[in-house]
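Marked as duplicate of an earlier ticket. Keeping the data here for the record.
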Amino acid sequence: MSSNLPLSVSIISFNEEDNIGRTLESVMGFAHEIIVVDSHSTDKTVEIAEAFGAKVYDEDWKGHVKQKNSAIEKCTQEWILSLDCDEVVTPELENSIRETVASGEKDGYIMNRRTFYAGKMLAHSWQPDNKLRLVKRSANPRWGGYDPHDVLEIEGTKGKLNGDLIHYSYRDINDHFQRLLKYAKTAAMSYHKNGRRFSMFRLIFNPPAAFIKKYIIRGGFLDGFHGLLVAVSSFIYVFLKYVFLWEIERNEG
């Protein structure tokens, strides 16, 4: 990769052959190195990543947070751009990254992520979706939060980049709701591990609150039927999260 940007791209992967090439193509023009921590993919993910010049490390799955921390620990450049395999850097965002790395006024930079869902680029649903993704290695970046909702944290100041990060979220509706089920169970397990207990109040009130937030407060209805799908999926996700937490506690007893 011929680039004068002192920047590492950090990615974790598992069976992402449908996505990872698009992501790597969007960064190969300005990244000095690409680090991919793969979890024993059985498709062509590793082959595609290596074709783009990525350094691929094969590791057991440790959970979203620990896996992403493993990836950023392997980065050697002054700046780190952390991406998921289904995210693409737009030309406008690339220009903003180039200008930012050249000036380096802040220790980390937030970018807005827009989602392409069921054949449509959403304008209101899942918005705003601000993500801290571009950080200085000297700012001690670490992934925190809880699986699967990891959050990148740094020590230092933050700024905002122009341009969008495009999120090619799900292959289809079936993929969306299959993953929703998986993520709800993972979140419940994380809640339990961190000592959070089941609450009937949250089970009753949090799912409709999630729907109202997505569909009305955030203007999801302006995205038409797609916005309704997003809001309903949020209702189901939150409901299942607490149901799974209830089940874990019941099985323990």
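See parent ticket for discussion. The mean pLDDT is 95.
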